[in-house]
């Protein structure tokens, strides 16, 4: 049993266009870290939260009841911790309100770190409900489409109706993710309130067909079918207006050869799925288009099989 551990959890692309609230993929090369150590306190505490620049985070609270990492950690400790509690230090690598699963990455890194401090650590599959407690606080709803890929890695289907059951989908061979983060913010809880309460049957049928075809395409490495099916006809129309560079970035991605492109989570980030060899060019074209409308940005290219959360030390 250790007294001090650090865990890393990757960013993620939720919804993946076709699967609102139920489909997501982990993104390599960007994520949050949480360090945890045992204390004699009664409750989980947060010693500090540091931002991307390494400085004390200007917005995120060290109030343990207002931080997704500590809320998730407290849920796990309440269920399986022993005497005392834990203290967390949160190192944000994912920008807040970026549509890259920032709150989920903190919650996942926290439960993975705290799990390693338990007398009898749980199997990773058992950690999902605890990480979801943190995510629920941030987004105002239960959905595992960021938390599950961040925890398990790769491409994960997590329909809310079946939680905590999740399904790992085969990542299509030869396909990568290009992810662009424009320097804008979208609050997920507010973006969820923008959505209509009901959807016309015609649209529902269309989206169900696209989701089913996309899943089949991933399982059969059918790149043409990914190109045909990667569309969001239900949610994107209500949200793309929040992201001023949306049309330009998506058009640039498609022109550079992307199979499809839409919002990552609730935005403002925009992802594209691409053939592996096209992914760098697609990411550059997206960046250029974004800067062309006067918004600074950053991009990543990731396999669709990126690893999930892990203990670093
Ligand atoms: N499925 C969620 C949403 C993901 O789109 O609201 C948020 O990152």
The gist of it:
This protein is an alpha+beta fold and 313 residues long.
Summarize the topology.
Elements lengths: L3 E11 L8 E17 L5 E6 L17 H13 L4 E7 L10 H16 L10 H12 L7 H6 L2 E3 L9 E3 L5 E8 L5 H6 L7 H20 L2 H7 L6 H4 L6 H10 L4 E4 L6 E6 L3 H14 L4 E7 L6 E2 L2
Parallel strand pairs: 3-4
Antiparallel strand pairs: 1-2, 1-11, 2-4, 2-5, 5-6, 7-9, 7-10, 8-9
Helix pairs in contact: 1-2, 1-3, 2-3, 6-7, 9-10
L-homoserine (HSE) binds next to α5.
Strand content: 15-25%
Number of continuous helical runs = 10
Q: Please tell me the overall pLDDT.
A: 95
- Shape verdict: globular
Query: What's the β-strand tally?
Result: 11
Distance between the termini: 13 Å
Q: What CATH architecture label of the largest domain applies?
A: 2-Layer Sandwich
Tell me about the largest β-sheet.
7 strands, mixed
Fraction of residues in H or I helices: 25-40%
Q: What's the CATH C level of the largest domain?
A: Alpha Beta
List the bound ligands. Answer: L-homoserine
CATH topology of the largest domain: Ribosomal Protein S5, domain 2
Structural class: alpha+beta
Computed over alpha carbons, the radius of gyration is 19 Å
How many distinct domains?
2
């Amino acid at each position: 049993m250790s007294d001090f551990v650090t865990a890393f959890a990757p960013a993620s692309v939720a919804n993946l266009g076709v699967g609102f609230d139920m489909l997501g993929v982990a993104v390599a090369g960007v994520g949050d870290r949480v360090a945890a150590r045992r204390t004699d306190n009664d409750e989980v505490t947060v010693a500090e939260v540091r931002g991307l620049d390494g400085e004390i985070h200007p917005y995120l609270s060290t109030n343990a009841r207002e931080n997704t990492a500590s809320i998730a950690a407290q849920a796990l400790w309440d269920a399986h911790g022993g005497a005392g509690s834990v203290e967390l230090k949160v190192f944000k690598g994912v920008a807040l309100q970026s549509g890259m699963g920032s709150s989920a990455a903190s919650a996942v890194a926290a439960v993975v770190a705290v799990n390693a401090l338990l007398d009898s650590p749980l199997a990773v599959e058992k950690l999902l409900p605890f990480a979801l407690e943190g995510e629920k606080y941030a987004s105002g709803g239960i959905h595992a489409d960021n938390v599950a890929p961040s925890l398990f890695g790769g491409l994960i289907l997590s329909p809310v109706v079946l939680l905590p059951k999740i399904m790992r989908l085969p990542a299509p061979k030869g396909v990568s993710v290009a992810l662009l983060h424009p320097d804008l913010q979208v609050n997920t809880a507010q973006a969820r309130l923008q959505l209509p309460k009901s959807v016309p049957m015609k649209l529902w049928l269309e989206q169900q067909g696209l989701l089913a075809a996309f899943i089949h395409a991933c399982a059969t490495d059918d790149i043409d079918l990914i190109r045909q099916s990667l569309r969001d006809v239900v949610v994107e129309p209500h949200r793309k207006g929040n992201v001023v560079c949306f049309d330009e970035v998506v058009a640039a991605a498609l022109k550079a050869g992307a199979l499809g492109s839409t919002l990552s989570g609730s935005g403002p980030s925009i992802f594209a799925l691409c053939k592996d060899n096209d992914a760098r060019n697609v990411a550059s074209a997206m960046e250029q288009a974004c800067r062309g409308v006067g918004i600074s940005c950053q991009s990543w290219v990731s396999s669709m099989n990126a690893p999930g959360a892990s203990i670093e030390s």
